Amino acid sequence: MGFRRRLVLAGLAALLLASLVLATLVGNIPLDWGQAMLAIVQSFPGLSGVGGPVEPLVRTITVDIRLPRVALALAVGAALGIGGAAMQGLLRNPLADPYIFGVSSGAAVGSAAAAAAGFAALGAMSYPAAAFVGALAATFLVYQVARVGGRLPVESMLLAGIAIGSLLAAVASFIVYLDARRHVNLIFWLLGSFHTASWEQVAVVAPLTLLVGGLLLLESRRLNALLFGDETALSLGVSTDRAKAVVLFFVALLTAGAVAFAGIIGFVGVIVPHTMRLLVGPDHRYLIPASGLFGGWLLVTCDLIARSAIPMSEMPVGILTAFLGAPFFVYLLRRSRRVGSWG
Question: What is the set of domains in the chain, with CATH numbers?
């Protein structure tokens, strides 16, 4: 079984690598693939003169536009996949996703409030920073509301997340409604997109995804214990409330980083971990890295389709993931009714 799981991880890594190369070479503007590959090679330190000259336009499109976009899609997809795997394990429910505790709604309020107030102290990073703060604030609020007698029951976490998430979504919508023209970019962000991707954004999201994803991997034993319920986990020596708080905080960090720069991209956190659970099983030592690899592949591929399907135009990637994810979610919902929440 261990060999099979490692083989799946290796296959996912190869699939992801192929999608990264294809997404960098393909787009609305056709490029000479040889020149594009040469531009990528020459972007590495010490290799700037290897292979001969590269056309400036090819270098700009490849290195400054497509590569950061692909890298950001990879980091965001991995973050949502890992966050979804951890959240489904924490709640013992295949329908859970990283947004279930109001992270996306909190980010939307933060970004909308920054736009309404004209906050620009951090330049291009102003709105993402506000979205990040709003996402973490929403998670903290859910955590405080969900605590009952010093404990953190799963049911209370779910109900608090749904209630506060809905409230914050209404607040964000109201802010946008007050002055829709000023919030055109915010509306595009709410649909989920990588059209503003830059190396500065990658430099924030990629390390955050690697660091927090690694920390969640260290929590694998506790997540595995929580799958059997709080009483069994306690008998195995796991402090369940502490484990829940730590996992919730890590997932909030991952999701906040992803949403702050890419907007609200739905269903990735549901589709990815559930699919990977079918391939590698529920053990989070394998499920977390598999979800990161598959989440990165899925979002890189979806973004490639979204920006290439319509000539000289671009569909927000969140629309495409919703088209793919909604039927999958309905299937999961019907299946969970037949066989139980974890079936």
Answer: 2-336 (1.10.3470.10)
